[in-house]
Amino acid sequence: MRRYLYIITSIFLISSLASAQSLDMLKEKVKKINIDDIKGASLSETDATNAIKEALNKGVDIAVKQVSKKDGYFLDPEIRIPFPKDMKKVEKKLRDLGMNQQIDQIVVSINRAAEDASSSAKPIFIKAIKDMSISDAKKIVNGNKSAATDYLRNSTYLSLSKEFQPVIRTSLQKVNATKYWKSLIRAYNKIPFIKKVNPDLEIYVTEKAIDGLFFMIEKEEKRIRENPKQRTTELLKKVFGK
Prior knowledge:
Blueprint: H1 2-42, H2 45-67, H3 88-96, H4 100-130, H5 137-141, H6 147-174, H7 177-189, H8 201-226, H9 234-240
């Protein structure tokens, strides 16, 4: 009798243990599903879009402050604007004629123009970010380390160039870059048997200045994605810290 009672008790205990284990496993699965669902639901397109705009606005603010100060472009090897590469023959010929100082003066002045103009670029970038419509915001948030900057660049580069060029023109004149450039080109065109050139300095400096700004914005985006300390608001922590 005792033997049967022992067997029955053992079966009951094993069944209870199995049921308890199954119940625990089920609870864990339900818990995991709920957490995943909550995470997915909490990251709405609105949150993602606002976080991208916030990150870009933060990047623009830091980038503009950094490049608009004196030597912001000139002493930064990553964004320094050189003498135009497609004008290397012109540069070499003029240097051979002893015009090193004039050429160096041009390089300094076009960087000064970019630095001066960059302070006026901020509202142009801010407007572009504000007007940006992002249907695939979550894709950008989960994309590569420069996904938001790439999107902004591809969406606004042409319009930014058009709006920014008059600002660059004014800055080039302000720092006498236009005068130095024209004087240099005139000197080159007077050389016998040389094919005359008339390069557009405004377009060149505009493109390089904008490229430099995007480069700095991209660096800030990468910091936000990689470094939790750079996520200075709850929204950035929520979206980029998930």
